[in-house]
Amino acid sequence: MPPYYPDQPRWVDIAESLKPTLRVTEALPRGLVEPVADAAAFQGWRMRPVEGLAALPTKALGAGEGFTLDFGEHVVGTFRMKLKAVGLAQDAPVRIKFIFAEVPAETAEPFDPYPGQLSRAWLQDEVVNVDVLPCTLRLPRRYAFRYVKIEVLATSPCFRVALADFACDTVTSADPAAVAPPSEALPPEFQELDRVSLRTLRNCMLTVFEDGPKRDRRLWLGDLRLQALTNYASFRNFALVKRCLYLFAGLAREDGLVASCVYEVPEPAIGHCFILDYAALFGPALLDYAEASGDWAAARELWPVALRQMDFVLAHVGADGLFVDPGTWWIFIDWHAGLEKTVSMHGLAVYALRRMLALAKALSEHCGTAAPGGAERQSHTHTAEGGGATGLASFPALIERMTVAARKAWRDASGLFASGTKRQISWASQAWMVLGGVLSPTEGAAALKALPGRADAIPPAGPYLYHHVVEAMLACGLRDEAVALLQSYWGGMLRAGATTFFEVYDPADDRLSPYRSPLINSYCHAWSCTPAYFIRKGFAPPPATRTATRT
Residue 372's Cα: distance from chain center in Å? Predict the structure, then answer.
């Protein structure tokens, strides 16, 4: 079957031509540590420093002996070290076990039996046999870690082994020299929020914007949009964003739908996940890119892809102007298992419609036309999922109809939006009603300020939704509340010992995992990097208003 968009093969070629060369930098361990059970620490474990790193090259280890290296902060790359035999003769291989850990619990808790939902192979443990000593051992895989637990499993009665010169050859496509400091002096805690955010982003910037360098290691559309926003305010690697957008477009499904994730190896390939809210955000991400980079030619070329995604979304908006969850799509919004998503998806759809109109207007100004065929161009004439083809000219009236309908159907007497048959109140619903412009800034401010006092309001379960809550607060003029949320939520991860921000973080449950095991969670995750975006846009307190900082 031919591709939906005639230029898809060329788009993949363009994406491949933009694949970056990775920067390699040596990182060295800063000390030795051991895990200590501590009910007050993150996930019940903290690291205690121990002496002996400098003496390791002269210390001979036998079976059952080992240690844990601390690199001081999260790194991504390949690990190497030197080994030599000590004793009569190396009359057998030496067998060594490695565990690469992002957080202390991974060094302290057994991986097996593994209860997780995702593949056990993502857990970063290896057993290596080395036949000939001395040698330099270079592990071939790439790891994401702060700690390396090394245990000698077997030698022989004739020899022991000494280990030395540990290093990680870190990799990233981010250029640290491209990052300017924030425009204003910051309180110490916000300096740390900025630094950890940028390290999170940098460690996810490889040959694409990966979602997490420990697990998945692929390009996801929702993650990309937030990574790109932070990148525009920091590393400014526009070529990497363009590569990712062209991969999504070039690998679109036979009906024109962009996948929610794509693979790079062994060759670019479409992923098997299709998330409706992610598809709706392709157009906004394209507009963000063009506004930041000035590359309106790319935006014009990919305009048909952005417009086509709205067909899939609007196929589920009825004549009454209300979005109806068909139950056949993955709608993400947030990881909270009990979240009712109809209202938040409706608000997100209105947000996407508004951003598509803004993209069309900008293309008309910069290129003379929104797309080949003109600004009023229809998307492809055959239908998406049985719905009608989407016309750009219909968007203003549709936005108005969806706004009026949502306010009438779902807004309760308290001014909050209630979703589903059980009339669920959630942070997600209010945030996306604000971002979609369904609520005015004054109304949105009142709704968002009411949420902390509502015990029945479903809170976010992860940084992806928390980003949109902060964004909604700022859209309503709630700058102080947004700053406080950055400080309490992402600051909570700092106080938990984070040197990169996590995929999942619930202050009330630090072992929360969507995958049935916190060991498989990613503790350097793309969508968590946005405090640096907000800080660099000027949404941080000046030093004069600083509050208590982490000790």
Answer: 33
Q: Quote the tokens at residue 391.
A: 């016309």
Q: Is 136 exposed, middle or buried (0-12, 13-18, 19+ CB in 10 A)?
A: exposed
3-state secondary structure labels for all residues of 240-287: HHHHHHHHHHHCCCCCCCCCCEEECCCCCEECCCCEHHHHHCHHHHHH
pTM for this model (two decimals): 0.94
H or E element, residue 222:
helix 221-232
Can you say how many angstroms the Cα of residue 59 is from the centroid of all Cα atoms in its chain?
41
pLDDT, tens digit (0-9, with 9 covering 90-100), for 134-188: 999 999 999 999 999 999 999 999 999 999 999 999 999 999 999 988 877 899 9
Q: Are residues 390 and 485 in the same domain?
A: yes
Asked whether residue 144 falls in the same domain as residue 208, the answer is no
Residue 412 contacts residue 418 (beta carbons within 8 Å): yes
pLDDT digits (tens, 9 = 90+) for 208-247: 999 999 999 999 999 999 999 999 999 999 999 999 999 9
Q: Which of 196, 103, 174, 194 is nearest to 144 (CA)?
A: 103
| Host domain of residue 79 | 23-172
For residue 537, the domain's CATH number is 1.50.10.10
- DSSP single-letter state for residue 487: I
Specify whether the CB–CB gap between 464 and 527 falls below 8 A: yes
Give the chain's length. Answer: 551
Verify that 372 and 520 share a domain, yes or no.
yes
**Nearest by Cα to 226 from 278, 268, 183, 175:** 278
**pLDDT tens, 97-116?**
999 999 999 999 999 999 99
Q: CA–CA distance from 532 to each of 198, 211, 240 (Å)?
A: 7, 17, 19
Say if residues 185 and 543 touch (Cβ distance below 8 Å). yes
Residue 36 and residue 336 in contact, taking contact as beta carbons nearer than 8 Å: no
Q: How far is Cα 60 from Cα 158, in angstroms, rounded to an integer? A: 12
Amino acid letter, residue 319: A
Provide the percentage of residues in the chain whose pLDDT is more than 70: 95
Helices marked H in 267-392: 276-280, 282-293, 296-314, 342-367
Q: How far apart are CA 314 and CA 384, in angstroms?
A: 9
- The reply to whether 158 and 234 lie within a common domain is no
Reply yes or no on whether the pLDDT at 447 is more than 70. Answer: yes
